[in-house]
Amino acid sequence: MNESVDKLPLPSWLETIAVFDTETTGLNLSEDRIITAALHRINANGDLQPGGFDWVINPGIPIPEVASRVHGYYDKDVVDATSPAQGVGEIVQAIQACFDEGIPVLAYNAAYDFTILHYEAIRYEVPALRFGTVIDPLIIDKTIDKYRKGKRTLIAAAERYGVSLDNAHTAKDDAVAAGHVGQAMLRYFLAQDKPVVRFPASLQELNDNQARWADEIEASYAKWRQQDVPDYKPQFGWPVKQLG
């Protein structure tokens, strides 16, 4: 990215953000389980702040080989790890503390992490999150740079925005890289002479915009899928998917 954009100051309401990521047993949002998770805070310069959290959890079910090959955790690695009920409770409590302080929580493809967490909380009777502001760089990227070709993975976004990501699929590294991508993306958004959409004036507006953009993206995707699968049903909801 342009150096002048890199130094563009972010609004004061983005001075501190929390960054969140999970690694799981699979991609089924209501059935798969969290194995590792990370929640850390960074300042507007992207510097890691003290007091972050990293979890390794025994998911309570066998870890599929295909998932282990992605994140590197096998059944033998989690035998003595935190129990799922305790781990999920701690994750929810730590995220809730951020929201209660007015700190936005950033997660790349937030609907994945927060939907998984939502169903984990139900599974272990953990009180549901009372959401504050969520920042989802994937939703923002698909909106402000809608027609850019290529993948929209975190790895691709990191390359696009000049962010280092040395240990992809490690919860802490992915979370922090996603935070740096989000900050770079928001600076790029601010610097546009003719933005596709207006830059939000507050955390509440940013949150509300993303919820609307996410539904628009899902509706467009469903329309495309229905060309080949006529009965394909969109899954609306952000940052928690409304699963049938």
Can you describe what's shown?
The model has no long low-confidence stretch (mean pLDDT 95). The protein has helices spanning 3-6, 65-71, 84-100, 110-123, 137-144, 154-160, 171-191, 203-225; strands spanning 16-24, 34-43, 53-56, 105-106, 134-135. It is α/β, with parallel strands linked by helices. Helix 4 (110-123) links the parallel strand 4 and strand 5. Strands 3-2-1-4-5 form a five-stranded mixed β-sheet, with helices on both faces. The chain has one domain (3-225): Nucleotidyltransferase, domain 5, CATH 3.30.420. Helix 5 (137-144) runs parallel beside helix 7 (171-191).
Q: Which structural category do the helix and sheet elements fall into?
A: alpha/beta
Write the CATH homologous superfamily. Ribonuclease H-like superfamily/Ribonuclease H
Task: Tally the helices.
Answer: 8
Distance N terminus to C terminus? 41 Å
The poorly predicted ranges are none
Secondary-structure element series: HEEEHHEHEHHHH
User: What coarse outline follows from CA principal-axis ratios?
Assistant: globular
Calculate the mean pLDDT score and round it: 95
Give the spatial strand order of the biggest sheet.
3-2-1-4-5
Q: What portion of residues is helical?
A: 40-55%
Assembly status: single chain
Find the count of extended strands (DSSP E, 2+ residues): 5
Major sheet summary line: 5 strands, mixed
Number of domains: 1
CATH class: Alpha Beta
